[in-house]
Fold this sequence. Notes:
The chain is mainly alpha-helical. The chain has a domain at about 1-85 and about 190-220: Arc Repressor Mutant, subunit A (Orthogonal Bundle), CATH 1.10.10.10. Helix content is about 55%, strand content about 5%. The protein is built from nine helices and three strands, in the order αβαααββααααα. It has helices at about 5-15, 20-30, 30-35, 40-50, 80-95, 100-105, 115-140, 150-175, 210; strands spanning about 15-20, 55-60, 70-75. The protein has a three-stranded antiparallel sheet with strand order 1-3-2. A hairpin with an 8-residue loop joins strand 2 and strand 3. This is Transcriptional regulator. InterPro entries: Metal_resp_DNA-bind_regulator (IPR052509), Tscrpt_reg_PadR_N (IPR005149), WH-like_DNA-bd_sf (IPR036388), WH_DNA-bd_sf (IPR036390). Pfam families: PadR.
Amino acid sequence: MSAIRLLILGAVRQHGRAHGYQVRNDLEFWGAHEWSNAKPGSIYHALKQMAKQGLLVAHDVAPSTVGGPPRVEYEINDKGTEEYFTLLREALSSHEQKTDVLSAGIGFIVDLPRAEAVALLEERVAGLERWRSSVTEYYTPKEGLEQLGHIGEIMNMWVHSADAGAEWTRGLIERIEGGAYTFAGEGEPFVGVLADDAPNPYATHPEAEDDIHGSRDDATPPRPG
């Protein structure tokens, strides 16, 4: 599972309709370009691909001021919404997710009802516990991991990773059950997207005015200078 699909579907859904620069700006505001593959080129490419796959609807809304492709805004449809929630639930419940996918899931967790979010995270904890048990039961010598030489440190690392992941997830469950955050159906959620005219302190590359208006959505974006 790729984090980029979940990130883009979630970002477009939060806006209602958004052009490529808005999506890129949001993801950079969240720092996703540091912890995922959400780089400019992959964002624009994924938007166009998901429109072709019927998950997003592309709207040509304004001509380019420099003679390039028109500004394109993307809107999530019913099929895209179904895919979004499928990816979100998988990101939160699977103990085998990569860190970037789990991070994307946490970023959109409040789109779910509180009870469902807790249930998915509990499923993740159970998976981590099962995996840890299988490692310690079948791969740990009676005399201890040191009997495997330095190779034993591999299992030691994974056992500690499972313990840390389960501990963090239990802490999140406790905070959610204690009333933290605003989940679906509970009122106005935290707004995690930038307003159109708001500066982004984490932007990797300042865009020209025409880029902001979206004429590059169907073109290759410039590389950061």
